[in-house]
Design brief:
Chain lengths: ~350, ~260
């Protein structure tokens, strides 16, 4: 059994990446083809191919749907799924807490509060219509992360699994009520409460996809660079310090990086729970806990998972579109219970 | 001109004081450790032994100075510190299924930290050597979650060996281990110490072990130094009685006499 698992890990590198890339590509195509109007795979591929290379594309409803609706949406979902999953992986490693994630720790809610505040007050940055909202979301995400960690630290110094989650849950409830208050008083400038609490990708555009890509490349790059440090933290913070990790600095960098990524995701798609909680576990089952392999694996699996969740959310009750968080939470809550039970048992 | 022989102080503490809120856990303690020595920190629960170790490891704030070969530890970068001083702590719990090799390999972190500091060519050999001397070569691919307490402790000992420091700081290295493991671990450390330029400082609860392996000792009581020097001079019946409030020698003799027919 031990040998078998080892074999799977050693062989992981090229073949599994190839398989994951392929699976991601297939899922993306599937998500572009399927919807209230079905489009054939060949139509989809030719339309995208031709427009990428600036070749003439015959005008049709399909072209409009693919290029203006589904492609930007699929791109955003892919990038957000990858980003959220990376954030979850990084936090679970950094805090050595298998239940850590933007949504369980209240960071996403903090980011949502930031975005809502920026929208309600009309705070913008010159140049980008999303700039102000994103910056505020990032700042609030970081603020809530620091607040929650310090509260948990004051409660018990070991930063145990359950106290962080408990504070995160209470914080999330508190923030939700503030968000709904703001929305009530500034109804025409902000989006609906369900968008902020359950998330949605309807109506996203290429500009948002580009912003997500930029954030993912930058922050993802930083997280990959810090995979040895994440390994050290995942084994134990004291041990990390003993082997020579600059604990304070690395922690700060990773927390800021995660806040930026979550801030960008939340300002575009609202809070989507549990992606970052569940997917790192799936990835860990596939490739083991070493972040060198774990980060890429959870990037891919997060993207695929969120694509499927988005697909289900917009097709299962068509023409009604569910919030994507409904699907991720259904899956995630069950997974949360299983993971929580297992960590308790392992102790 | 009279030449004063250089004594190489591997570690030197001056007026080290650690406060937790209003409690003074370590009170103006000075100590020194030379190459080739094994300094035992002894004293009852709450004497400040583990606190002092945490301070040396730069894990908690303290006043006073701790120097390695004259250099203040506070001025060393985290990775520079780890290249010189290796710490084996008391509690090591691993939550994820890392392999033995991955955990031991982490000991090389300080030697390859930084973006442009180049590859760590020595690393593979050091890890290999550490796995071998701790008898873990066969377990190298095993998950940490499947190990026993003794194996786990050996893994972290191997990690600190792979780190290749010059001073080894150990907090209860054989705590909760069966006697055969205790003996194994202490002889491993003794062997490690034989190489030139090395020194060991450790907290050992078991006074017999301290006596057997230590060259020097610092006897602590409520954060204050009661006595320090050669192990035989520190661990006297009078000193131990003062610190532990009982006749340690008589007790040890009584325990031992049970085994004599």
């Amino acid at each position: 059994m031990r040998d078998l698992r080892q074999l799977r890990r050693e062989k992981f590198a090229p073949l599994t990446y190839l398989l994951l890339t392929f699976a991601l590509f297939l899922t993306m195509i599937l998500c572009i083809c399927v919807g209230s109007v079905s489009i054939s795979v060949s139509d989809t591929l030719t339309t995208i191919w031709n427009s990428v290379w600036k070749l003439p594309v015959p005008e049709s409803i399909a072209k409009n749907i693919i290029l203006n609706v589904r492609l930007p949406r699929v791109l955003c979902v892919t990038l957000a799924g990858a980003a959220l999953s990376l954030c979850g992986t990084a936090m679970q490693g950094l805090l050595r807490n298998p239940l850590a994630d933007g949504s369980t720790m209240g960071v996403s809610s903090g980011a949502a509060l930031g975005a809502v505040t920026a929208m309600a007050t009309g705070f913008t940055l010159p140049g980008s219509s999303y700039g102000g909202i994103m910056i505020t979301a990032m700042a609030f995400a970081f603020g809530s992360l620091i607040l929650i960690l310090s509260l948990a630290y004051a409660l018990d110094r070991s930063l145990s699994t359950s106290s962080i989650i408990l504070i995160g849950v209470i914080f999330t409830m508190f923030i939700s009520s503030i968000i709904s208050l703001i929305i009530t008083f500034a109804s025409d400038h902000t989006r609906s409460l369900s968008f902020w609490t359950l998330g949605s990708f309807s109506g996203v555009n290429y500009e948002q996809a580009a912003l997500l890509l930029l954030a993912l490349v930058l922050c993802g790059g930083i997280l990959f660079r810090f995979s040895p440090e994440l390994n050290a933290f995942a084994i134990g913070e004291d041990n990390a310090r003993h082997v020579g990790v600059n604990v304070k600095r690395v922690k700060l960098i990773i927390l800021i990086t995660v806040s930026v990524l979550i801030g960008v995701c939340v300002s575009i798609s609202g809070t989507i729970s549990f992606v970052g909680l569940v997917m790192p576990h799936i990835a860990r089952m596939l490739v083991g806990p070493n972040h060198k392999r774990l980060l890429p694996a959870s990037l891919f699996s997060g993207a695929i998972f969120l694509l499927l969740a988005d697909l289900i959310s917009r097709t299962i009750l068509s023409p009604i579109e569910l919030s994507i968080g409904v699907i991720t939470s259904l899956v995630g809550a069950v997974a949360f219970v299983i993971i929580f039970y297992q960590t308790r048992k392992a102790r | 001109m009279i030449r004063v022989p250089d004594v190489i102080r591997a570690l030197e503490g001056n007026n080290v004081t650690v406060r937790y809120d209003r409690v003074v856990a370590v009170d103006a303690l000075s100590f020194h450790l030379d190459e080739g020595e094994w300094l035992m920190l002894a004293g009852p629960n709450g004497a400040g032994k583990s606190t002092l170790i945490e301070a040396i490891a730069q894990g908690i704030p303290y006043t006073g100075s701790i120097r390695w070969k004259g250099r203040d530890l506070k001025t060393l970068k985290a990775s520079d510190l780890a290249q010189r001083i290796g710490v084996l702590s008391q509690k090591n719990h691993v939550g994820y299924a890392y392999t033995v090799e991955e955990v031991v390999g982490l000991g090389r972190y300080a030697w390859k930290a930084g973006l442009f500091s180049g590859r760590d060519d020595r690393g593979k050999d050091e890890v290999e050597k550490a796995l071998e001397i701790t008898g873990l070569t066969a377990l190298r691919h095993a998950s940490m979650l499947t190990l026993s307490g003794g194996e786990m402790q050996r893994v972290f000992l191997a990690q600190v060996f792979a780190q290749d420091p010059q001073v080894l700081i150990l907090d209860e290295p054989a705590n909760h281990l069966d006697m055969n493991y205790q003996q194994q671990i202490f002889s491993l450390i003794l062997k490690w110490l034989k190489e030139p330029g090395r020194a060991v400082l450790s907290v050992v609860h078991d006074l017999s072990l301290a006596r057997r392996y230590g060259t020097h000792a610092v006897l602590l009581d409520r954060g204050k130094c009661v006595s320090q020097g050669l192990i035989s001079e520190v661990m006297t019946p009078e000193n131990l009685r003062q610190v532990y409030g009982m006749d340690v020698y008589a007790w040890m003799r009584e325990m031992l006499s049970q085994w004599q027919e």
